[in-house]
Structure formats: structure tokens, C-alpha cells
Amino acid sequence: MGKSLPVSPLAPDAFPDLPEIGGVRFATAEAGVRYSGRTDVMLASLAPGTSVAGVFTRSATRSAAVLDCQAKIGGDPAQGAAILVNSGNANAFTGRRGTAAVEAVTNATAKRLGIPSDRVFTASTGVIGEPLPHDRVTACLDDLATRLAPGGIADAAHAIMTTDTFPKGSTETVTIDGQPVRIAGIAKGSGMIAPDMATMLVYIFTDAAMEQPVLQDMLSVLNRTTFNCITVDSDTSTSDTLLMAATGASGIRISGTNVGFMEALRRVMLDLAHQVVRDGEGATKFIEVSVTGAASDAEAHVHAKSIANSPLVKTAIAGEDPNWGRVVMAVGKSGARADRDRLSIWFGDLEVAHEGEVSPDHDEDKAAAYMKNEEIVIHVDLGLGGGTARVWTCDLTHGYIEINADYRS
Amino acid sequence: MGKSLPVSPLAPDAFPDLPEIGGVRFATAEAGVRYSGRTDVMLASLAPGTSVAGVFTRSATRSAAVLDCQAKIGGDPAQGAAILVNSGNANAFTGRRGTAAVEAVTNATAKRLGIPSDRVFTASTGVIGEPLPHDRVTACLDDLATRLAPGGIADAAHAIMTTDTFPKGSTETVTIDGQPVRIAGIAKGSGMIAPDMATMLVYIFTDAAMEQPVLQDMLSVLNRTTFNCITVDSDTSTSDTLLMAATGASGIRISGTNVGFMEALRRVMLDLAHQVVRDGEGATKFIEVSVTGAASDAEAHVHAKSIANSPLVKTAIAGEDPNWGRVVMAVGKSGARADRDRLSIWFGDLEVAHEGEVSPDHDEDKAAAYMKNEEIVIHVDLGLGGGTARVWTCDLTHGYIEINADYRS
User: Fold this and answer.
1) Residues of B with CB below 8 A from A321's CB?
2) For a disulfide at A53, which of A215, A286, A367, B198, Cβ 3.0-4.6 Å?
3) CB proximity list for B192: less than 8 A, separation 6 or greater
4) Hey, are the CB atoms on A358 and B94 less than 8 Å from each other?
């Protein structure tokens, strides 16, 4: 699974060179939860003094691990912390056995690392509804704890993959008071990706020192315009988790008003979010949907999501067809305000529709040539007000059908 | 287009034998709007005394013809009426030229038939954003008017097809006061089909006598549980139109409380709605999603739609995979209330999940065998209240991608 899929044509050239973050150590193992011949468990150990913040799926059927993490966010940084993730089994919709599995894993991890169990954050990703063989995970703990090392983040990015075709990482370094402050993050995600949630599994680490409420606020705010603005297939996972840990190892304290750090963190989050879209199941095109002139930012977001989730828009782009009529359709059905006769549409720099009808400048050949690009920008101006939004998605291809019509069997 | 696609494997064995409806005459022609070698215009002439009611798309970018029809519904039955439909071009998002085209067609039709132009209802279906060559339609009017005949409804069903792979018709006869009252309807639709609208082009005729407000109320109420409960791809058309004409030729007057007639009409509407799903682009499975135990009927409908529109649920069914975890996911993301630990799921009669985890009776082999059926029933009980809903859809296959990645080019 995953491993047998060809790497997405939209993948970056290489996994980035992620720096070590003081206070964070990683280890991975082959627990054999579901996959064989590959790592499927990652452990991250966080030094005492590390603040941890998180954003999670809003699904009403969220997994036991997500519920457990949500209850623990905001605990005492002095105790240190740990993140333990398995791939291959989501431990979702597994009832009391699911809750017991999370308890077993967090208790065993806490005991082995000598930290309280309410400082152990777990996640599980993979098939839904099958009991997690948690003993296979806990059986690896001695080995994992022995091999914890600062340089293992790339291996960690591999261990959490499911249908992903490439590991996802991003980094930024900001200089504050003459000192480098580092941010490094990893993510996994390829299908069951939709806006309005924390999306997938994302782990971001920094050696900045941050109070937990400052970290939580910054993460939540930036999440709205990054991970909450991507969609692969409009389907929201039961397990989406975004966790960020600030170890303080750099000795530099970051407040909520540090624009330089916040912008760097935003770039890391957006880069990881885009990488998830670039690994969208079956994707051959990376699409930015930009909406301006809406009655409000919220309504712009509704229009942008409606376009980005439309199977007809996504298949037209897969077919390299500049079918802007389907964009009109998606705006019309969104439920947010639109006036047909003020609506204009661009593919890249080419205006294809102008105030409710085909643009006088429209050139079908130029538009068709533009659609051959690997990155497509659709811009819609509603002509109503100042509301704007940007959303990123991929096309809908035979690859998506192939991957999902035979995921579990 | 359309003609070259293989007939859906879910198509009925044959087009039904539709009765003539007193007061209704049909004619079709090859106007060459976009297609060649097939009919693409249909004219229905309605005798004086005919009430006409309609339900239309709620799209904010609805077509000029839809806006025109909405303004005319409820006019004077004494004048008679006409319905004129072309396929191949939707005349949607065509600005002032679109409005002018509707005026040209309705005026020419009115003049030729000797009725007021506010009694001519038009619709256009096909590609969006290209100006309608309305002169090609009006050039056929003399020929159409000369050939109007009571028996032409099957030909009419053919003329309005676009990506449809079979024509859709349905009929019922009710005996009232010892007299037969007939209902006959035709529909077209295959892609860009989503709930919360009148859906596609649907024309229903009866020789009952009905006051227009009675007819309108009955149509609107029945639409909620028929056409508004189907979805192919969650994409809502700019042109959806459901029109019903009651000529009164039977001499039998129907009130709003005639349960026998209303039930017969409901069966015709549901039959036509199911035929649209059975011709869903690329469909190989007909799927009923039944939700019970929701907090309200409205929330049951939200859950049912979320399941029926989920690409992951639809691809799982295409792959004959009893992947009920994806049903859990779709319930969780819907936004309506759900309690994971009260949720139970059945595929047909097989309980696969029971109160938040895999059912003790679950047998993977039996479930896999059930998924090989052409008709699949997914039943979700939320265990919260008395709300219920039923929605119908089809699976998502390579056929959908093939049809839509190359519709216009």
C-alpha cells in the first residue's frame, strides 16, 4: 500500500534538508500494524519546557486518539512530552476497544519515557473500523526509546505515510536578536482531505520558547488560511491532527506579535499544506482557486470551496479543457451571494468571462494552451464587495478512482 | 455526443408505452444547434384550459430561460400554452444576448401558435457560456407547428437528451369516479445532478383538470422527496426545470386532497428521478441511502446527502468494497448531529457496524458478496431521534472521468 503507487508528478524534487531542533528527538520502527517491510511507528520525544498546541478534525465521528489529544492540550510543559504515531490502522470507530488501545499506548509510552501519560499525544492513520493491534506498537517502545536521536525527522516523515507517494517536510529559520530560531515540520495526507479541519497528520517543531496559549493562538489563526484552505476530495478524515511543539532550546522567547516568526511559520504551514495537495490521490494538476469581490471573506471561501470541490471543474482540468462554464455552475450552486451579470473569470492571466458572459478577449486556443500547465490558477471576481479567499486543490483523474475503488480489499 | 456513449447498464429494459394525453401535442426537429444527425428541438403544444406549474434550479447563476419561466408561471390557462426545448446549448451565462435569445424564441413560437408569449415556456440544455444560435431554432417552427401530434412524446424524450444514454419516461393511470385520469412524464439528465433543486429537464402531462395553485403546491411538495433526493455528482445545473401541465381533457377535476392522484404522481416523479440516477455519468451501481434515527428529518437529509456525495463512499461501491468506515467518515463530516457510539450501519440486510464499532454479526465475505449486486442499499441509524430521509445516487467510476474530462473539447 502506498509504496506501490508511483510518485505524484507534482512531488517536489527532493525531501528538504530539515535542521535538528534542540529538545526534539525521533525514532521509528517496523511494528507490523498492517504493512510489512516498512516503518509504521514514529516516536518524538520533547524535552521538559516544551509547549504543545494542536488543532483537530471537527468530525462528529472523530477517533479515540483525537479525543484523547484534545483533552490533553494545554498541560504542564515542565514535564516534557511525547508524540507517538502509527500508520496502517486509524483506530477510528472501534468503540471502547479503541479508547482502551489509546490508553494502553499512552500509558506504556509514558512509563518507558518517565513522563505523565497526559503528556503523551498519539495519532493513528489508516483503515477505519478495525481494532488496533496496540500490543504490536507497545512491543516496539523499548527499541524506540533506545534509538531516539535528534536527526530522525526525515525517517519520521516516512513512517507516518499511508497512500502518500512522497514524504512531506518544510523548514524556515528566522533570525531574532541575532540568533537563529528554527521551525521544521512534517505532514502526511493524500486522500480524505477537505477544508474546515486541521487536516491530516502534521507535526511542526521549533526551538523557540513560547507560552502554550501564544502557540495555540498562532497555530489556530494560521491554520485558517493554510490547512483549512486545501481540499483533495471534500472528504474529512476522522483523525486529522495538527500538533506543534515549541521546545525553547534556542533561548529566544516569541510573543504573539512577532511578525517575522509568524510569517515564517505561515510559510512552513502553507508549504506542507501544498505538499499534501501535490500528493492528492491521482493528482496531475495543482490548482489555486482565488476568489475576490465577494460580499465577505466567509462567502468568498464558500465560493472557492464550491469550485475546488466540484467534480465537473476538477475533471475539466484533468482533461485540460478551459471549461469556464463549470466554474459558473460551481459559483451558482455554492449558496453564497453572486450576481451572474457581475461575474468575471480568469484562467491564469487570461480573462475568459467578463461580467456575465464570455469575455470579448477570450481566445479558446490560448485558454486551451494555458490548461496544459501543471499549475493552474482560477480567479473569480464577483464584483460585489471586498471579500477574498484562496483555496488549493488538485484535479480528479482516473488515478483517484483506481486508488479508492480498491483501497481496503 | 451522448449518442456515442454505451447505454447505462442500469437502464430500464425499454422505454415505457406512454399514453396520449388529451390536450397535448408534440413535434421534434433537427435544428442543428450543436449536434447533427439527431433531433435537438422539441415543441409541446398545450390546449386552452391547461394549468402549468414549475419548480426550478436555485442556482445564483441560473440561465435566461429559467428566469423567464419563473416569471411566467401562474399565467392565464384560458390562452393555452407551449413548451419549447433545445439540447446542445444551455444558453446560460450568455448575458444580454441570452435574454434576447429567449425573447426571440418565445416570441416566434407565440406568433406561430397564436398564443401570448407569456404562455411559452422554454429551456435549453447543453454547453454553458456559448451564445445560442436561436435562428436555427426559430427556423424550425413552421415545420414543428405543422407536425404537432398527440403521439410524439417518445420522440420528445429523445430530442432533449445530452449526455443521457437512454430516454426517460414514466406513466400512471388513476381511476377517479370510474374515469381514467392519465399522467405521463419525460426527463433528461445524467451529469451535473445534485439535490436541492428541481433537477434537470422534466416534463409531466396529465389530462386531469387542476387549478394552477393546486398543481403548483402538489408539484413542489412531491419534488422535495423525489427530484430533490437524487444526486449524481453534487453539481447543480444552471438550467434545471421541472414543468407539469394539467390539460383537463379527462373532465375530472383534482383537488389538493386527492390522495390517489397524488400518490400516482409521486410514483411517476420518483420513477423519472431514479431513471436520471440510473443514467448517472459512468454509473454501474444504483444506490439507496436510507437514514433513520436522526435528530430531525432535515438532519437525516444532510447525513444522507453527505454519504451519497462522498467520493470515497462512491468509489468504494464502484470497487464492490464493503468499506463502511467511509460511511462513518461521511456521517462525521456532514455537520449534522451524530453520536459515534450510537451509530449503526447496514449494507442491505447485513449489519456491518453496531453502536460505534464493527458489528458482532459482521461477516466480511457476506458483505463483499452483497456489494456485487447492481442495487445497493446503505442504511444508517443514528440512534438519536425520529428523523428519516432517503436519497438515491450512483457510484463514481472511470466512466465519469472519461465523460467529463473531455465533454467540451
Assistant:
1) 405-409
2) A215
3) A312, A329, B232, B233, B235, B236, B237
4) yes
- Residue A342, beta-bridge partner list: none
Chain B residues within an 8 Å CB radius of A356: 93, 95
ipTM: 0.78
Angle ∠(A311,A316,A318) on CA atoms, nearest 5: 95
User: Where do we find the cell 411517476?
Assistant: B268
CATH code of the region B286-404: 3.10.20.340
Task: State yes or no: is B171 an active-site residue.
Answer: no
Q: Which of A57, A58, A59, A61 to mutate to test the interface with B (most CBs of B within 10 A)?
A: A61
Q: Kindly report the pTM of this predicted structure.
A: 0.82
Q: Of these residues, A122, A165, A171, A199, which one is catalytic?
A: A199
pLDDT by residue for chain B (409 residues), tens digit each? 334 678 888 888 999 999 999 999 999 999 999 889 999 999 999 999 999 998 887 777 888 898 999 999 988 889 999 999 999 888 888 888 999 999 999 999 999 999 999 999 999 988 888 889 999 999 999 999 999 999 999 999 999 988 788 898 999 999 988 999 999 989 887 766 543 322 378 788 999 999 999 999 899 899 888 888 887 777 666 777 788 889 999 999 999 889 899 999 999 999 988 888 888 888 899 999 999 999 999 999 999 999 999 988 999 999 999 988 889 889 988 889 999 889 999 999 999 999 988 899 899 999 999 999 999 999 999 999 999 999 999 999 988 888 788 655 4
Q: Do domains B24-278 and B286-404 have the same CATH topology?
A: no
Distances (CA, A) of A219 to A198, A205, A270, B195, B346: 10, 12, 12, 36, 40
Domain regions of chain B by residue span: 24-278, 286-404
The CATH label, of 3.90.1640.30, 3.60.15.10, 3.40.50.150, 3.60.70.12, for the domain at B24-278 is 3.60.70.12
Q: Which residues of B touch A128 (CB under 8 A)?
A: 325-326, 328-329
For residue B356, the chain A residues in CB contact (below 8 A) are 93, 95
Q: Which of B94, B163, B199, B393 is catalytic?
A: B199
Q: Which of B238, B320, B324 sits opposite A328 (nearest CB)?
A: B238
CA distance to partner chain A, nearest, from residue B401 (Å): 6
* Alpha carbon A14 to chain centroid, angstroms: 18
